[in-house]
Amino acid sequence: MKRKKIAILGGSGFVGRHLVAALAERGIASRVLTRRRNRTRHLLVVPNCEVVEANPLRLADLRGHLAGCDAVINLVGILNQSRSARFADVHAGLPASIAAACRSAGVGRIVHISALGVAEDAPSEYLRSKFKGETAIHAAGGDIAVTSLRPSIIFGPGDSFFNRFAILLSLSPLVFPLACADARFAPVWVEDVVKAILRILDDDSTFDRRYELCGPQVRSLHELVQFTARITGRRRWIIDIGHRLSRLQGIVMQNLPGKLFTLDNYLSATVPSVCTDSGFDALGIEPVGIESIVPAYLGNREKNARMDRLRSMARRQDS
User: Fold this and answer.
1) Which phi and psi (to 5°) does residue 156 adopt?
2) Which domain holds residue 35?
3) Distances (CA, A) of 195 to 167, 218, 220, 257, 279
4) Rg (CA), the chain
5) Are 213 and 142 in contact (CB under 8 A)?
6) Is residue 180 part of a domain?
7) Does residue 297 fall inside a structural domain?
8) Helices 94-105 and 59-66, axial angle in degrees (round to 10)
9) Number of helices and strands (H, E) in the chain?
10) What is the pTM of this model?
11) pLDDT tens track of the chain, all 319 residues?
12) Contacts of 292 (CB under 8 A, 6+ apart)
């Protein structure tokens, strides 16, 4: 079946921007549901992309805006809770509502982005809530075909992983204390995740299946931060602070503005974000590693930062 219009929840985020562009290139229309339309100007110029303001957590909004679409892709996820966004609502309640809204609107296809390490007895609330949502959406039943993807950390231009550590390294003096340094990841390129989504959309052999998505290399967090420091030219002494201090750091920092690190983040990091089965192999996709992609966008970031500093110096000298 050729998909004509696809509803995307979380389409204004990092993965969503890449997915909407890929759909447009293939002549597939998209309808992005967002709570704040004024923050999605970057999508308004994409051909065949309709941006509608809606609250995805309201079942009535979902039902109304899924009408006329023949597939739904759920990219919604949060790393930390806030007063307005709770794991129970975003990760567990929303997928159940999506399934109910699809039944009402006659939408027969759902692609759901979950996470590696989800389990009913996972140590973190993040992973447990992701498991509940994945389970709920696969219980949609009826004529709805559901496929879940479980990626490791996703990287690419505009990501919140390598870019964040690049900023933290730039703000840090010679010493960089690192929590959860032995946490293991298999970073996956955003374009490979998009390829997987497009590959499974119309493949009925993927219905009611879950695919783990990992990049070609498994790295510790220490190795990934070291890689970031090398790419950005930051000579830092990276000190692994151990699990006891990492846990304490999470307890303290979760009460600070911005929530750079929380106790729940620490608990999630104790579960390796690596694959037991290669979903990319099953889908016939050869994933790309960090060495081929990250230097290009982090290198440009540093180049632009240097130019900004030079321009600032020139303005001061002229004044």
Assistant:
1) 155, 170
2) 5-151
3) 29, 21, 26, 36, 12
4) 20
5) no
6) no
7) no
8) 40
9) 13, 13
10) 0.93
11) 577 899 999 999 999 999 999 999 999 999 999 988 888 888 989 999 999 999 999 999 999 999 999 999 999 999 999 988 999 999 999 999 999 999 999 999 999 999 999 999 999 999 999 999 999 999 987 789 999 999 999 999 999 999 999 999 999 989 999 999 999 999 999 999 999 999 999 999 999 999 999 999 999 999 999 999 999 999 999 999 999 999 999 999 999 998 999 999 999 999 999 999 999 999 999 999 999 999 999 987 655 554 444 444 444 444 4
12) none
Q: Which two tokens stand for residue 132?
A: 């509940």
The one-letter amino acid at 118: V
- Please tell me what DSSP assigns to residue 68: T
How many domains does the chain fold into? 1
- Specify the residue for token string 């039902």: 63
Q: At 16, which CATH number?
A: 3.40.50.720
Give, as one character, the DSSP assignment of residue 298.
H
Integer CA distances (angstroms), 180 to 37, 165, 314, in order: 37, 14, 41
